[in-house]
């Protein structure tokens, strides 16, 4: 495994069919916590942690890495700043994916192009910086709305839907979003990131800049 500059790794190695690493334990709060006052409409300003998460993702991309599974549970806000954790699906952007299959990370935040590739049986359905941004925008949406970004009922799914059904809806790019969010301008930015074609999606750095100007 190649070490990521700026990310401390205690030990790393390879095993048959994959790799492993041991990293330091971060003391902090999950992504949900800093956005709770805004989610509860107890404040109007966007917490700095939201911008910091985008900046941390941008830094990872600048180092040539893709996370592959950004979600609220994989973001920790510490005294040292925001940190992405759980790099089980991470890969170098310039390399062919090591694993033969990729399911898009958590199904609620699977980018439409990845969901479509999975539905068509094209593997590995490679993660990209753009799919990371879709999951990043979906993570912020979930933390602000208190529920996942896709409105499954309005998108035609039954109450007890499966990950495969979720990905099928995402693959069509005709899904409906939950909401409204407590911050209109932020909702517009995240909506654009979630509904745009991959080529039109902002980068993580661009999204950080847009959020920073709110």
Mind explaining what this structure looks like?
- A three-stranded antiparallel sheet has the order 3-5-6. Strands 1-2 form a two-stranded antiparallel ribbon.
- Strand 1 and strand 2 form a beta hairpin.
- The model has no long low-confidence stretch (mean pLDDT about 85).
- Helix 2 packs antiparallel against helix 7.
- The protein is globular, with a radius of gyration of 17 Å.
- Helix content is about 35%, strand content about 10%.
- It has seven helices and seven strands; from the N terminus they run E-E-E-H-H-E-E-E-E-H-H-H-H-H.
- With about 210 residues, the protein is an alpha+beta fold.
Structural class: alpha+beta
Averaged pLDDT, please?
Answer: 86
Question: Order of strands across the biggest sheet?
Answer: 3-5-6
Query: What characteristic shape results from the CA principal axes?
Result: globular
Q: Give the N-terminus to C-terminus distance in angstroms.
A: 39 Å
Strand coverage percent = 5-15%
Order of helices and strands: EEEHHEEEEHHHHH
Strands, total number: 7
**Spatial extent as radius of gyration:** 17 Å
Task: Give helix % range.
Answer: 25-40%
Spans of at least 5 consecutive residues whose pLDDT stays below 50 are none
Per DSSP, the total helix count is 7
The description of the largest β-sheet is: 3 strands, antiparallel
């Amino acid at each position: 495994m190649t070490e990521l500059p700026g990310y401390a790794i205690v030990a790393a190695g390879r095993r048959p069919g994959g790799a492993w690493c041991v990293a330091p334990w971060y003391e902090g709060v999950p992504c949900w916590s800093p956005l709770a006052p805004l989610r509860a409409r107890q404040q109007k300003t966007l917490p700095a942690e939201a911008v910091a998460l985008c900046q941390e993702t941008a830094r990872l991309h600048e180092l040539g890495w893709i996370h592959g599974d950004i979600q609220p549970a994989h973001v920790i806000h510490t005294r040292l700043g925001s940190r992405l954790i759980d790099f089980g699906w991470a890969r170098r952007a310039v390399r062919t994916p090591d694993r033969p299959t990729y399911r898009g990370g958590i199904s609620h935040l699977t980018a439409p192009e990845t969901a479509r590739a999975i539905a068509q049986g094209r593997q590995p359905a490679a993660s990209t910086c753009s799919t990371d941004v879709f999951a990043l925008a979906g993570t912020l949406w979930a933390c602000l709305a208190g529920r996942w970004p896709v409105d499954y009922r309005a998108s035609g799914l039954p109450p007890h839907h499966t990950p495969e059904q979720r990905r099928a809806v995402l693959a069509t790019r005709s899904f409906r979003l939950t909401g409204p969010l407590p911050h209109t301008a932020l909702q517009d930015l995240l909506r654009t990131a979630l509904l745009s074609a991959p080529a039109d999606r902002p980068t993580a750095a661009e999204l950080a800049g847009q959020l920073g100007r709110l």
